[in-house]
Each structure stands twice: as C-alpha cells, then as structure tokens.
Amino acid sequence: MVAAELGDGVAPADEVPAAVALFRQQYRAEHIGPSYSGWLHFAFTSVGSLAAVGFALARVRSPTALELAVVPLTLVFANFVEYRGHRGPLHHRRRGLALLFERHTQQHHRYYTHEAMAFEASRDFKVVLFPPVMLVFFLGVIAMPVALALSAFVSRNAAMLFVATAVGYFLLYEWLHFCHHMPEHGAFARSWLLRRLRAHHQAHHDLARMRSGNFNITFPLCDWLFGTIIRAPRS
Predict the structure, then answer these.
(1) Phi and psi, residue 208, nearest 5°
(2) What is the C-alpha to C-alpha distance for residues 98 and 93, in angstroms, rounded to an integer?
(3) Cβ neighbours around 2 below 10 Å, total
C-alpha cells in the first residue's frame, strides 16, 4: 500500500513551479544515475540502522538506572547536534565542509522548496536521504569512539545503550525527513503529529528564511530552546 502510494509519478507536474521543475530535471540528468534505486537506498538505511540497534541492544545486560540515563541524555544531545549541524555547516559554507553546504543548501533546498515539498518519484529519494556511506561514517567515526570511551570509563551497558540510541535517532531523522517530503495525500500525512512536523520543516524550506529557523528535522526541542521557531511558511 505504502509502496504503491510512493511510487513514481505520485505528484502531478502542475504542482511543481517551473523553476523547481527545471532544476529537478537538470539534477536528475547530472547526478542520479540510471542504476540508482530509491527503494534500495531507503532499505539499506533502514535495515542497516535497525541491525546496528538490534546488535547493540542484544548486548545490554540488566542495566542500572544510571546506565539507562544514557538513553534520554543521548536523545537530547543528538537533538542538539542535529540543530547545530543544520544551523551551521549545512547552511553556512565552512572550510573542509563545503560538500555538506553544497548538497544541502545548493541542492536539497532548490530541489524541494516550501511550494514544492514532495518528491515526484522514487529516484527523488536521493535528494532526501543521506548517502549510504553516511551510515558507515556515523557508526565508525562518530558512534564507535564515544561507545569505546563509555565502555572504558562507565560500562559496557552504557556504551551499547548509547550506540542503540544514537543510531536509532539517526534512523528516526531519516524516516521523519522522508515523511516531510512525501506527497501531502500520502498515508503518513494523515497523522496529526506528522502534519505538524511537516509544517515545521516546510517553513524552513522557504528559501528566504531557511537560515532563520526551524533547524530541527525531528522534534523542535532546540528550536524552541534557542528561539528559532518559524511559525508558518510565507504565502
């Protein structure tokens, strides 16, 4: 059911402004090869992340209350990292991180504007999901060093709970961002919560205000804490 709703040709062409349609056409021709599969990309991210979460949780044994506190602390920290990364290098060119700026501000925000949020075909998933290598990078370069430090100075349970929570948050980010760019008539769009989160993200996709606020893609905790909530997209 969901796959049918999200297949190719889900958004009528007349819903996409001409400038956005032209950019999408050029981007597909230059950057999305004929062998790319949006559903395979989505499956790799989902299955790989779930496998990592399951692997970590399977190694947790009788955690204490202190060890369980790693879970909410990691969620809050991940929300802050999401916020700072989005507000910083994703929208401001930084030395050594120019590729992030190019992919996000120059490509993602031109491919999807607040007037044209939805993908038209599964091949458009490439401009929503992180590249598959990011899962490997996230696990090997970010999650594992922190996990090793927790294992050495706190406990193995704390380390495994951190890995499970951090990777779970990464997957939640990917799934929610995917939902934000689904057609409005899609199955998940009927959820009140997802509609609210989509509206939050849609306001951020206003090109004139994308550097002003709504930097959280998951839940706008840090947007609220730092006063960067944009209430609605401009008409």
Answers:
(1) -75, -15
(2) 5
(3) 10
139-151 pLDDT tens trace: 777 788 899 999 9
Task: Give the start-to-end residue ranges of the domains of the chain.
Answer: 37-225
pLDDT digits (tens, 9 = 90+) for 20-36: 999 999 999 999 999 99
